[in-house]
Amino acid sequence: MRRLLLADFLHPGEHYHYARVAIQNAEPVNRHRHNFHELFWVTGGNGVHWINGSSRPLTPGTLTFIKASDEHTFSGALNIINIAFPTATWEYLSQRYNLPRYFASTPIEKREHPLSPLHLHDLDMLSENVASGERSRLKIESFLLDACQFLERLENNATPAGMPQWMREAMEKICEKQNFQHGTRYFARLAGRSPEHVSREMRRWTGKTPTDFINEARMAYASSRLIASDEPILSIALECGFESFGHFYRLFHATHRMAPNAFRRIHQSIVHG
Hints:
Elements: E1 2-4, E2 17-25, E3 32-34, E4 36-51, E5 54-58, E6 62-66, E7 72-86, H1 87-97, E8 112-114, H2 117-126, H3 128-131, H4 137-155, H5 165-174, H6 177-180, H7 184-191, H8 195-206, H9 210-228, H10 233-240, H11 245-256, H12 260-267, E9 270-271
């Protein structure tokens, strides 16, 4: 049984490991444990999580907490975001802030959280800070606290008080590729309101414009495709709904602080278990 060590994945001075990973395993291989905690969520594809003698289906939006003693591996074709960090970091935060016991010795189904396309988009945005720059202790602690608050809001069905249902439903739908590629006017069509009304209400309830929100969904999708495929970058830009490659390039660079080809080179990898 392999036991993965966090130190093997970290550079000097780093306090956590972040990775966007493509998995291509026809069968489960290389079951392992680790000396760290991790959480991962599926951004694309379908597969199976083999953990502690059971098999759990994985689909886009599945968020899972993994404790150090878990024995697991994957099979299928999956794109995931994985964040690994010291068990002691979680124990410190849990004791100090009386956090929910997401990593407790509970059945794995209690440590899984299905996310809607909108919530998956929200989590991707929440993780942007830990994805880039210095991988400090402050960053991972802040992310874990934010992630706990994020899940508590979901469990309590919390949305901003008074947010219209039509807006929430339109925001859910526009996160899907077949919708966001058509832009803001299609967003208004999904909402059943005028573009002007949708823009005013979006700013009021989210602080974002419809364009901002759609571009975030496009960037999340583009990131996933860059990792999971060898598709030309221009094709991905067109698939996202951008008519100008220059616009796509500038927006991607502003989002990820690197060019699309550099992002693909750094993050694209195949993991066999």
